[in-house]
Specification:
This protein has 192 residues and is mainly alpha-helical. The chain has one domain. Helices cover 82% and strands 0% of the residues. The chain has eight helices and no strands. Helix 2 packs across helix 6. The N and C termini lie far apart (50 Å). Keywords: Membrane, Transmembrane, Transmembrane helix. It comes from Aquibacillus rhizosphaerae. This is Glycosyl-4,4'-diaponeurosporenoate acyltransferase.
């Protein structure tokens, strides 16, 4: 199974990114078009999908023992997600909102019971809270496994801990700064 994953890592990475963007676009369409809780499934799917690339890169690094172009591409994807992604997601959000307004020929959908309005600040608050909760769970799992694996020490385990720590730092940076970065990008959008 691991050999299959490592042989097809590029295909898995590309499919993962395509599924991320498709699930996020479906979430936005459902958000503005239908009064359904299924939109949260697609939001959760897009979030979980985005964080599947780190274990894939970690697994590849553990088995190859050196950094390669694949690892740099994964780092580039996460760099984009942290630095430019929120701005592009807001642009896409506004675009989907305008399209659904035209299709429906009316005011945009005002949300389900969980995401109550199309106001970007409501979405930002909900999404940033969800990201922080996910990060706290990730942090607890990291600490729990560090305590369990403390007595064991070998080369592969040390590499795994290092890669996991790096993934945790990226997750923490993304989760804790998402709201402020997105509000800043929203202000830039409103000024245009």
């Amino acid at each position: 199974m691991i050999d299959f994953i490592l042989e097809h890592k590029w295909l898995i990475l590309v499919i993962s990114e395509i599924l991320f963007w498709l699930s996020f676009i479906i979430f936005l369409i459902l958000r503005y078009w239908y009064n359904s809780r299924i939109q949260l499934f697609f939001l959760g799917l897009s979030i979980v999908n985005q964080f599947l690339n780190i274990p894939l890169a970690a697994l590849d690094y553990i088995y190859t023992g050196h950094a390669s172009l694949f690892h740099f591409i994964v780092l580039f994807i996460y760099g984009y997600a942290i630095l430019r992604g929120p701005k592009d997601m807001l642009h896409l959000d506004h675009y989907i909102q305008k399209i659904t307004e035209k299709w429906k020929n009316q005011t945009p959908y005002r949300g389900s019971t969980i995401i109550r309005s199309t106001h970007t600040s409501d979405f930002i608050n909900y999404y940033s809270t969800m990201l922080r909760k996910k990060f706290y769970i990730h942090l607890l799992l990291f600490v729990f496994f560090q305590v369990i694996l403390l007595p064991f020490s070998n080369y592969h385990l040390t590499n795994l801990k290092t890669v996991w720590l790096f993934a945790l730092l990226i997750d923490g940076l993304w989760s804790m700064t998402f709201r402020s970065r997105t509000i800043h990008f929203k202000a830039q959008l409103n000024n245009k």
